[in-house]
C-alpha cells in the first residue's frame, strides 16, 4: 500500500517499486518494469517483444517528497532493433533518453530559472551550477523545436540589436509588436543576419508583414526592402529623438572643452556632465530651477542655444497633424540645420535626409520600437544577473525564456 502511494505520487507509469531506502536527506527508490510491459525502441519507436540484448541501471533525480530528495534507480533495457539491426536503449515516456533527471524535475528547474539565476536555482534544488545549466539548456532546446521552428509569423515587427559582450558584439532581435514577444534572434547585426530571418519565414511570411519599425541601421533597411516588399518601414520615433539628443550632447561636450581651455568657470559649471540631463529633457518637463539654469546657459553660449532650438524644432515634427504638414516642417528644419554652422547638426541633417521617407511613414502607421527598448532593458538585466554568458546559444534561448514564447508563464 505504501509503495503504491509513492508510485502514484511519482507518476511513473509502467514501473513498480521493488525497493526503497531512506537516509537523512534522500530517498533511493529502485524500480522495475511490469512483466507485460514491452520496451519501446528509441530507434524505430515501436515495441519489441524479441531481440532483448541487455539491461543497464540509470540513476535519475525526481521531485522531492516531504522535503527529501528523490533518486530513482531505473533499469533501462536494450534491444537489437529488427528494422536497422542496431542496438538501442528503450524509450521511457517520463524521462528523456540519456537524461539524469525526470521530465517533471527538468520542467521545475526550468520554471525556477525563469525567475531567478541558475546559481540560486541550484542552491534550491541542491545542484551545482553546471548541472542546472545542462538541464535548463536541454529543456529550452526541446521547447524551441516546438515553439520556434518554424519561425512564428507576425504582422507588425520591430527590429533592434542588443549588446551581449563588450567590443561591439551584438545580437539582432525581431519582436512581434502585437504580442510584445521576441520571436527570433541571431548573433550579429549585419544585413546578412536579418536576411536569415526573412528567408526563415519564407515568401508567405514576408508578404504578411505590414510594418517594420527600425532604428535606422542601413543593413536592416536594405534587408527589409529586399524581402518584405509590402511592409511599411518606419524610422522609429524613439531612435530619431535619441540621435538628436546625442547631437546636443556632443555640442555640450565641445563647448565644455573650449570652456576648460579658456578657464571659463561659469560655463564649465553649466555644461559639466551633471547638467547634461537639463539639455536632454523636454522644456515642459523641466523644474523651475532647471529652467533658470537652461536660460542662463543659453544667454552665455550661442552654440548650445542653437542646438537646443534645433532639438525642440525637430521634436515638434511629431506634433504635426498629417504627413504633408510634417514634410514641410522637416524641410524647414533641414534648412535651419544646414545654416546653423554647427558641424554636428549638419552631419545629422544629412543622415536624416537620406531616411526622411521612413520618418514620414510614422504618420501613416504610428508603430514604434519602444517595445524593443523595453525588451533590451530586460535582456541587459538578464545578462547582469548571470554576470554574462559564455554560451551565446544558451543566452539566445534565455532571451526567449525571459522575453519570448519560451516563457513558462505563457503556458500557465
Offer a concise description of the structure.
Helix content is 50%, strand content 20%. The longest helix has 26 residues, at 237-262.
Supply Rg: 30 Å
- Secondary-structure element series: HEEEEEEHHHEEEHEHEHHHHHHHHHHH
Q: What structural category do the secondary elements indicate?
A: alpha/beta
The beta-strand count equals 11
Anisotropy-based shape: elongated
Distance between the termini: 34 Å
Note the topology.
Layout: H1 2-10, E1 15-22, E2 26-33, E3 40-41, E4 52-65, E5 68-80, E6 87-91, H2 103-113, H3 118-125, H4 129-147, E7 156-165, E8 169-176, E9 181-187, H5 191-208, E10 211-214, H6 218-227, E11 232-235, H7 237-262, H8 265-271, H9 276-280, H10 288-300, H11 302-315, H12 323-339, H13 343-354, H14 356-360, H15 370-386, H16 392-403, H17 408-411
Parallel strand pairs: 2-5, 7-10, 10-11
Antiparallel strand pairs: 1-2, 3-6, 4-5, 5-6, 7-8, 8-9
Helix pairs in contact: 2-4, 3-4, 4-16, 5-6, 7-8, 7-11, 7-13, 10-11, 12-13, 15-16
Structure, explained:
There is one protein chain. The chain starts with a helix and ends with a helix. It contains 17 helices and 11 strands. The model has no long low-confidence stretch (mean pLDDT 88). It is of the alpha/beta class. Strands 1, 2, 3, 4, 5 and 6 form a 6-stranded mixed beta sheet that branches. The protein has a 5-stranded mixed beta sheet with strand order 9-8-7-10-11, with helices on both faces. It folds into 3 domains: 99 residues, no CATH class; 121 residues, Nucleotidyltransferase, domain 5, CATH 3.30.420; 122 residues, no CATH class.
Amino acid at each position: 500500500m505504501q509503495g503504491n502511494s509513492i508510485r502514484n505520487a511519482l507518476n511513473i507509469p509502467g514501473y513498480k517499486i521493488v525497493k526503497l531506502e531512506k537516509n537523512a536527506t534522500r530517498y533511493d527508490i529502485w524500480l522495475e518494469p511490469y512483466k507485460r510491459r514491452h520496451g519501446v525502441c528509441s530507434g524505430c519507436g515501436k515495441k519489441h517483444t524479441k531481440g532483448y540484448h541487455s539491461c543497464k541501471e540509470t540513476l535519475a533525480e525526481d521531485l522531492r517528497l516531504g522535503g527529501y530528495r528523490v533518486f530513482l534507480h531505473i533499469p533501462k533495457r536494450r534491444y537489437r532493433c529488427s528494422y536497422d539491426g542496431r542496438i538501442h536503449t528503450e524509450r521511457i515516456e517520463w524521462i528523456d533518453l540519456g537524461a539524469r533527471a525526470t521530465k517533471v524535475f527538468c520542467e521545475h528547474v526550468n520554471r525556477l530559472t525563469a525567475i531567478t539565476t541558475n546559481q540560486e536555482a541550484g542552491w534550491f534544488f541542491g545542484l551545482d551550477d553546471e548541472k542546472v545549466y545542462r538541464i535548463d539548456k536541454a529543456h529550452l532546446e526541446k521547447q524551441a523545436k516546438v515553439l520556434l521552428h518554424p519561425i512564428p509569423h507576425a504582422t507588425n515587427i520591430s527590429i533592434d540589436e542588443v549588446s551581449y559582450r563588450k567590443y561591439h558584439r551584438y545580437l539582432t532581435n525581431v519582436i512581434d509588436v502585437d504580442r510584445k514577444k521576441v520571436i527570433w534572434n541571431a548573433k550579429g547585426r549585419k544585413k546578412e543576419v536579418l536576411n536569415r530571418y526573412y528567408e526563415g519565414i519564407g515568401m508567405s511570411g514576408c508578404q504578411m508583414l505590414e510594418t517594420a519599425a527600425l532604428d535606422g541601421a542601413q543593413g536592416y533597411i536594405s534587408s527589409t526592402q529586399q524581402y518584405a516588399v509590402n511592409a511599411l518601414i518606419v524610422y522609429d520615433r524613439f531612435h530619431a529623438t535619441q540621435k538628436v539628443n546625442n547631437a546636443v550632447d556632443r555640442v555640450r561636450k565641445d563647448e565644455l572643452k573650449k570652456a576648460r581651455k579658456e578657464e571659463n568657470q561659469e560655463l564649465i559649471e553649466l555644461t559639466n556632465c551633471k547638467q547634461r540631463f537639463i539639455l536632454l529633457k523636454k522644456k515642459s518637463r523641466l523644474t523651475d530651477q532647471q529652467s533658470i539654469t537652461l536660460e542662463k546657459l543659453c544667454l552665455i553660449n550661442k552654440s548650445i542655444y542653437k542646438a537646443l532650438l534645433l532639438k525642440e524644432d525637430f521634436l515638434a515634427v511629431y506634433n504635426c497633424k498629417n504627413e504633408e504638414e510634417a514634410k514641410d516642417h522637416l524641410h524647414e528644419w533641414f534648412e535651419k540645420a544646414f545654416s546653423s554652422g554647427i558641424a554636428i547638426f549638419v552631419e545629422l541633417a544629412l543622415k536624416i535626409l537620406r531616411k526622411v521617407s521612413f520618418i514620414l511613414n510614422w504618420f501613416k502607421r504610428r508603430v514604434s520600437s519602444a517595445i524593443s527598448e523595453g525588451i533590451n532593458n530586460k535582456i541587459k538585466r538578464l545578462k547582469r544577473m548571470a554576470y554574462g554568458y559564455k554560451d551565446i546559444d544558451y543566452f539566445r534561448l534565455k532571451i526567449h525564456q525571459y522575453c519570448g514564447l519560451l516563457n513558462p508563464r505563457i503556458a500557465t
